[in-house]
Amino acid sequence: MTDRLEAQFAFLNEADRLKSVLRATTLCDGSRRENSGEHSWHLALYALVLADQAGPGVNIDRVVRMLILHDLVEIDVGDVPIHSANGAAHGSEATLVAEARAADRIFGLLPPDLGAELRALWAEFEAAETPDAIFAKSLDRVQPVMHNIESGGGTWTEYAVTAEQLEARVGAKIARGAPRLWDYVKARSARFFKVSA
Predict the structure, then answer these.
(1) What is the biggest distance separating any 2 CA atoms in the chain, rounded to whole angstroms?
(2) How many domains does the chain divide into?
(3) What positions does the domain HD occupy (predicted)?
(4) 15: how many CB neighbours lie within 10 A of its CB?
(5) Domain limits at 61?
(6) Would you call 78 exposed, middle or buried from its count of C-beta atoms within 10 A (0-12, 13-18, 19+)?
(7) Is residue 145 part of a domain?
C-alpha cells in the first residue's frame, strides 16, 4: 500500500507543475495569462454546465475526466497556441510525438493499473473519435474563444487572427461535437471580424 501511495502522490505532485505552464489565452478580464491547470479546471466546469449541449450517448463524467487530464503533457511540452506564429506546430508530428512521450512519462509515475487507465483516457481524447472525446475537444476549443470574446479580442488581436483562421482551426472542431455552441460563439465573435456562415 505504501508503494502505491508513493506512486500516486508522485503523480499528483508532478501534476502540480501544470499550474506553472502559461497559455497564450488570457483570463476573461484580460488581466493575465491563464495557466494550464486553470484551463483544465475551467473546462471540467464547462462540461458540467454545458452538458445539455452534448450529443446522444455522451457520458459527461468521462468527459470531465478527459478534460482534467488532457493537458498534463504540457508539463513537458508547454502550450502550443493554435493561432501563434508557431501555430503550425500545433498538431504537428513532432508535437504529437513529444506529447505521447510526455504522456508515457507522466502517467508512468502512477501504479501500472491506474497509469494505463488514465493514459488510455488521454489517448482517447487526443484521437477524438468517440462521442465523449469529440464533445470534450469541442469544449477545449470553445473555452479560449469565449475568453477572447470576453477580453475584447484577446489573442485574436495579438496574433492577427482572421475569420477564416478561426473557422478552419476552431470552428469545425466545435461544430463537430457541439454545433449549437459553435453557432453561439460564432455570432458573439462577429463584432471582432466577420465569420463566414
Answers:
(1) 58
(2) 1
(3) 15-182
(4) 17
(5) 2-189
(6) middle
(7) yes
- Is the Cβ–Cβ distance between 117 and 109 less than 8 Å? no
Tally of CA atoms within 13 A in the half-sphere of 20 that contains its CB = 8
Task: Give a yes or no: residue 97 inside a domain.
Answer: yes
What DSSP element (H or E) covers 94? helix 93-107
Instruction: Answer yes or no: are the C-beta atoms of 24 and 155 closer than 8 Å.
Output: yes
**Residue 16 within a domain:** yes
What are the backbone dihedrals phi and psi of residue 160, each rounded to the nearest 5 degrees, phi first? 50, 50
Report residue 191: phi and psi, to 5°: -70, -15
| Whether the Cβ atoms of residue 140 and residue 180 lie closer than 8 Å to each other | no
Answering whether pTM is above 0.90, one says yes
CATH number of the domain residue 168 falls in: 1.10.3210.10
pLDDT in 10s for each residue of the chain, 197 residues:
799 999 999 999 999 999 999 999 999 999 999 999 999 999 999 999 999 999 999 999 999 999 999 999 999 999 988 876 555 566 778 889 999 999 999 999 999 999 999 999 999 999 999 999 999 999 999 999 999 999 999 888 888 888 888 998 899 999 999 999 999 999 999 898 855 54
